[in-house]
Specification:
The protein is of the alpha/beta class. The protein has one domain: Aldehyde Dehydrogenase, Chain A, domain 1 (3-Layer(aba) Sandwich), CATH 3.40.605.10. Helix content is 43%, strand content 18%. It contains 10 helices and 10 strands. Strands 7-6-5-8-9 form a 5-stranded parallel sheet, sandwiched between helices. A hairpin with a 6-residue loop joins β3 and β4. α1 packs across α8. The longest helix has 21 residues. Keywords: Oxidoreductase.
Length: 287
């Protein structure tokens, strides 16, 4: 008998509602490195999986949006801690997905950790920037404050498997929204590993849901879903982006159009403020 041990090959699944289901269709697809070598099989999500992810996100929304901003910031910081602890694994996955050198891949992971910390710091500050006491001509207080939009679906950028992914997801959840994200079609493994980090952190199940598979198959189901409130088209090619933007008009989703972005650059506040609604309250003076 041979004494050679067979390694346990990892099965990369979806991350929906805090669990790791296979696609309901039973399908998977091969993921290859930029160099051409086979890496693994990843679950190929169906439209039904996309709808299930939206249901999970909606279920998690009341609790997550009702949490204090301080608490959301602490939770996101905890994700950064765990990502830092698995730095070597993520560097290997990013290196294979993006064709980077070992040093550059490690730098991408460091930037992703820093990006999480950066957004965590905004959790209890963004409403101070977006809110205001408005001047009015009358015996009233007029106060504006920001509230989360709801369920936001994001198409992660194809070329930035980890840093781009975090750059579209973090601003969604830190402001109290819940997220469904379609991972990079060609480099989904860092996204699935991020799901493992989220599952072992303090992020409640359903706050972030990760789908892997063909973007052209998943995205239309998300764009047309009537219980989705926002759509980030960062990872959609031109023709598909126009199709999805048209589908999003049926329930007046907030849409963030794709544009050429340097994911390593300072992110700014565009994505933070885009997924917030402004609520204005009038109150009589002296009451």
């Amino acid at each position: 008998m041979s004494t050679e041990r067979l390694a346990v090959r990892k099965t990369y699944k979806l991350y929906v509602g805090g669990g790791f289901p296979r696609s309901e269709s039973g399908r998977s697809y091969p993921v290859t490195a930029v160099s051409g070598g086979f890496l693994a099989n990843a679950a190929r999500a169906s439209r039904k999986d996309a709808r299930d992810a939206v249901v999970a996100a909606r279920k998690a929304f009341p609790g997550w949006s009702g949490a204090t901003a301080y608490n959301r910031g602490q939770v996101l910081y905890r994700v950064a801690e765990l990502l830092e602890g698995r730095r070597a694994q993520f560097a290997d996955e990013v290196r294979a997905a993006e064709g980077l050198t070992r040093k550059d891949a490690a730098a991408v992971v460091d930037a992703a950790v820093d990006r999480l910390v950066w957004y965590a710091g905004w959790a209890d500050k963004i409403t101070q920037i977006t809110g205001a006491a408005n001047p009015v001509a009358g015996p009233y207080f007029n106060l504006s404050t920001s509230e989360p939009t709801g369920v936001v679906c994001a198409l992660a950028p194809r070329e930035s498997s980890l840093l781009g992914l975090i750059s579209v997801v973090a601003p969604v959840v830190i402001t109290g929204n819940t997220a469904v994200v379609a991972a990079s079609e060609t480099g989904p493994l860092p996204a699935v590993s991020l799901g493992e980090v989220l599952a072992t952190s303090d992020v409640p199940g359903g706050v972030v849901n990760v789908l892997t598979g063909r973007t052209a198959e998943i995205a239309p189901a998300l764009a047309a879903h009537m219980d989705v409130n926002g759509l980030d088209l960062a990872g959609a090619p031109g023709d598909l982006a126009r199709e999805l933007e048209t589908a999003a008009t049926h329930n007046l989703k907030r849409v963030l159009r794709p544009c050429a972005e340097d994911w390593a650059a300072e992110p700014g506040l565009t994505r933070l403020t885009h997924w917030l609604e402004t609520k204005t309250v009038w109150h009589p003076v002296g009451t």
